[in-house]
Automatic annotation (TrEMBL):
GO MF term (any one): lyase activity
Alphabetical list of Gene3D superfamilies matching this protein: Classic Zinc Finger
Keyword presence, RNA-binding: no
Keyword Transmembrane helix: yes
Protein name: Aminodeoxychorismate lyase
Pfam families recorded: YceG
Keywords in alphabetical order: Cell membrane, Cell wall biogenesis/degradation, Lyase, Membrane, Transmembrane, Transmembrane helix
GO biological process, one term: cell wall organization
Length: 75
């Protein structure tokens, strides 16, 4: 964790505020996906823990998915 103590313009642990330039840039596939979302009503998602996600259309469905995959750790 030595890098957390190194005082550089990009270290937000030692400097207040934002770094002088962007620190991350999404790739073309991510930008395309944001501009052309998949069809559906899904507003929520939760990681299943196996590299996939559970998408939900309603908050009730999302709460059930969170209970299943996060609170009870079911595959």
């Amino acid at each position: 964790y030595k890098d957390l103590q190194t005082d550089t313009a990009y270290n937000t642990y030692t400097r207040y505020g934002l770094p002088p330039t962007p620190i991350c840039m999404p790739g073309a596939p991510a930008l395309y996906a944001a501009l052309h979302p998949a069809p559906g009503k899904a507003l929520y998602f939760v990681a299943r823990g196996n590299g996939t996600h559970q998408f939900s259309d309603t908050l009730q469905e999302q709460n059930a998915a969170v209970a299943k995959y996060i609170l009870h750790r079911q595959p």
